[in-house]
Amino acid sequence: MKRLLNTLFVLSEDSYLALENENIVIWGEEGKRGQFPLLGLESVFSFSYKGASPALLGACTKRGIGFTFLTPNGRFLARACGAAQGNVLLRKTQYRISDDPNQSCFAARCFIFGKLYNSRWCLERTVRDHGLRVNVEALKRSASFLSATAAEALKETNLDTLRGWEGQAATEYFRVFNEMILNQKKDFFFTVRSRRPPLDCVNAMLSFGYSLLASDCAAALESVGLDSYVGFLHRDRPGRESLALDLMEELRSVFVDRFVITLINTKQILPKQFDKMEDGAVLLNDVGRKTFLNVWQTRKREQITHPYLQEKMQWGLVPYVQALLLARWLRGDLDAYPPFLWK
Amino acid sequence: MIPLPEEEYRQLSELQHFAFCRRQWALIHVEQQWGENLRTIEGEILHERAHDEQKTEHRGDLLIVHGLRVVSHQLQATGVCDIVEFRRSPDGVSLYGQEGLWKPRPVEYKRGRPKTHDADELQLCGQAVCLEEMLCCEITEGDLFYGEPHRRTAVSFTPQLRARVADLLREMNSLFQKGYTPKATPGKFCSACSLKDVCLPQLKRAPTVTDYLASHAREEKS
Q1: Best residue of B38, B209, B218, B222 to probe chain A, by most A CBs closer than 10 Å
Q2: Are A112 and A162 in contact (CB under 8 A)?
Q3: Residues contacting A234, CB < 8 A, separation 6+
Q4: CB-based contact A123:A150 (threshold 8 Å)
Q5: 161-190 in chain B: CB under 8 A from chain A
Q6: Hey, what long-range contacts does A78-84 have (CB within 8 A, 24 or more apart)?
Q7: Residue B198: closest CA among chain A residues belongs to which residue?
Q8: pLDDT, tens digit, for every residue of B101-139?
Q9: Which of B31, B34, B215, B219 would best serve as a mutation to test chain A binding (most A beta carbons within 10 A)?
Q10: Do A333 and B220 touch (CB under 8 A)?
Q11: Cβ-based contacts under 8 A for chains A and B
Q12: Strand residues in chain A grouped as ranges (E)
């Protein structure tokens, strides 16, 4: 399997990134802050507002190194992608399917099935592991709703109805989300999903995690030659990476939600690692972001067995492998898209 | 055979990929996916030395042309020969700007050792067929030069080898026109393939996605 390489996170907001020979150099006011060889880098996430040189962006895109810009607070700004990969046949198939509501639904229901399946098992796992501390009845009820909805979603042929199923299931899942938080409950609680801005610590971490995952998914799709902007479940909207959002659906709960809950429950993240803004927004501060990213990186290196391919690989490669499987379905190697079903 | 415009002719070097694995060939040339590994990079370095651009060397009765571009309309294929040696010989052909008669012999450079399959022979034979068509002559033999024993191996262009070259190119042209990527047929050779990560040969052994989804949906209900 492809090797998972390093990710470079540039956290200081006044850093400027440039290319020097085969190295990425980080410049600050005081001079050179550090340098890293491009060789061995998988992706770069820059949380600095000063940006990077075009030469560096060119060198990264040429080598297939994903380059993502985020605000210092972790909101997605832009992603650099170079010349489109050569596989025009693959992209045309993608566009044809995206234009056809029936075929789009055939793909979309696999993403949704994956999403519901994985969300369900997150709830079931809490019941299994912490049955004595949680409201088992509430969790079980939601889990069986997700389970029934997943079965319906798999048969659905109408995109709008499918979106309806998904909406209901998401409401049900987030309704009991707070049950999964077992420690530091005074500071970490979940009532409702808030995005722009996140209004509590849990939402702040969810938004941050989703943002990282979306960039990983987009980069993975582009690297196998797909157009990350043309989706099946999410329809075209200028500037929105719809296919990346599609691919992300099944990974949200297993990749981000469980990760956030573990950070809280194991007290790796603490209330003092957040800042509260004047407008009510709650955001990870510098220390918090550093902690989050450190654990995130460690997690990406964990070994798992892919449920469909039955092959060992690192967690961090899952978006890439799913993008590849999606491409292989579009090219006719597979009878449908196999979502990542994890429990 | 459907007449193709010349810019759509196959490259002779593709014969190698095609003979090794049809799917690998399609992933590279139809889908334009490319995975680099040590082998491909070593191959590149060796080739850089062999031909940067076309140049001609004189060594007495030997005329050596590097990087000669060749084409065959009959094969609908084109390529570049590492080296074509022209030896002065009474049964040779005349060359523009050269005195006397010359007999051509293609020589192809390869990294590593001679292989157990005939991919290199096929490419060389393809070059010979092109040269024959361009020079109106007959070429019975050429050489493969391998990096590791550092020695030449003579290859004779038998009717069987020629027929295989023509067959493979015909099949390649037809797959390319259809934009079709053959399914994986995994084998031992997969471990030597630079495109293993893109090809996912293990898909062949995986269940159908319909079964995979159905079995997980069943457990959802229970």
Answers
A1: B209
A2: yes
A3: A240, A242, A243, A245, A246
A4: no
A5: 179, 181, 183-184
A6: A79/A215, A79/A218, A79/A219, A79/A241, A81/A219, A81/A222, A81/A228, A82/A58, A84/A225, A84/A227
A7: A324
A8: 899 999 988 877 777 678 889 999 999 999 999 988 999
A9: B31
A10: no
A11: 78
A12: 6-10, 16-20, 23-28, 31-37, 41-46, 66-70, 76-80, 274-276, 282-284, 303-305, 312-314
A113 touches chain B (CB under 8 A): yes
Pairwise CB contact (< 8 Å): A154 & B213: yes
pLDDT at residue A216 is higher than 70: yes
Per-residue pLDDT tens for B147-180?
A: 777 788 899 999 999 999 999 999 999 898 888 8
Amino acid at A43: S
Cβ separation A309–B206 shorter than 8 A: yes
**Residue A74 · residue A207 · CB < 8 Å:** yes
Structure tokens given for B67? 């990087």
Cβ–Cβ gap B220/A147 under 8 Å: yes
Please give the ipTM for the structure prediction.
0.72
Whether B31 sits inside 8 A of A341 (CB atoms) is no
Other C-beta atoms closer than 10 Å to the C-beta of A306 total: 20
The tens digit of pLDDT for each residue in A163-210 reads: 888 888 989 898 888 888 888 877 877 777 777 788 888 888 998 899
- Please choose, from the candidates B165, B180, B192, B170, the residue with its C-alpha nearest in 3D space to the C-alpha of residue B29: B180
Residue type, A150: A
